[in-house]
Amino acid sequence: MHYGQIFTADSANGIGIRVSLFVSGCTNKCKGCFQPETWDFNYGQEYTQETEDFIIKELSNAYYTGLTILGGEPFEPSNQHELIKLIRRVKKECSKKTIWMYTGFTYDKDLIPGGCRYTDVTDEILDNIDILVDGKFIEELKNILLNFRGSKNQRIIDMKATRKEGNVILSELNN
């Protein structure tokens, strides 16, 4: 897996001060994407153990609320297998931090068994994140007044409630 950048002290991609990892690789290629360079799976730097250690060390600082993983596309199958290792470490070593993920895929269509981005680790990822922002960016539905998303079709999903209830529960942040 490659990544384009890591933002520290990020306040734009989730509640509070966050560490944000922008992974590389995306097959959605949304028109008007704000980072089309991340479509290339080899864009940026190789994600290594040192990269993961840096994220964990940075996230361990008390002023961080959590980690945000976006891209590119975190739910590309090749990215999921690397990201689950990071998520496991965050849950173990920084257990009070929240985890947000962004995807251009749709939770209840693409990330379920039989869905186009469902893998052997998808359920574990979804069980261990707090918020999932899902849906392709649609330029015609762009709205800069929306919280934490770019177009009206995208949803901010409360994953703890969603996984517990078995159906999509939107976060109050959707308002």
Feature tags:
26% helix, single chain, alpha/beta, seven-stranded mixed β-sheet, 7 strands, 175 residues
Count of individual helical segments: 5
Strand arrangement, major sheet:
3-1-2-4-5-6-7
Radius of gyration: 15 Å
Mean pLDDT, to the nearest integer, reads 95
Low-confidence stretches: none
Structural class: alpha/beta
Overall spatial form: globular
- Distance from N terminus to C terminus (CA atoms, Å) equals 34 Å
Q: In percent, how much strand structure appears in the residues?
A: 15-25%
Biggest sheet record: 7 strands, mixed
Helix content: 25-40%
Q: SSE order in H/E notation?
A: EEEHEHEHHEEH
The number of strands is 7
Describe the overall structure.
The chain is of the alpha/beta class and 175 residues long. It has helices at 49-59, 77-93, 107-110, 122-127, 159-165, and strands at residues 2-10, 18-23, 45-46, 66-71, 98-102, 131-134, 155-158. The chain has a seven-stranded mixed sheet with strand order 3-1-2-4-5-6-7. The model has no long low-confidence stretch (mean pLDDT 95).
In brief:
By secondary structure, this protein is an alpha/beta fold. It is 26% helix and 21% strand.
Topology:
Layout: E1 2-10, E2 18-23, E3 45-46, H1 49-59, E4 66-71, H2 77-93, E5 98-102, H3 107-110, H4 122-127, E6 131-134, E7 155-158, H5 159-165
Parallel strand pairs: 2-4, 4-5, 5-6
Antiparallel strand pairs: 1-2, 1-3, 6-7
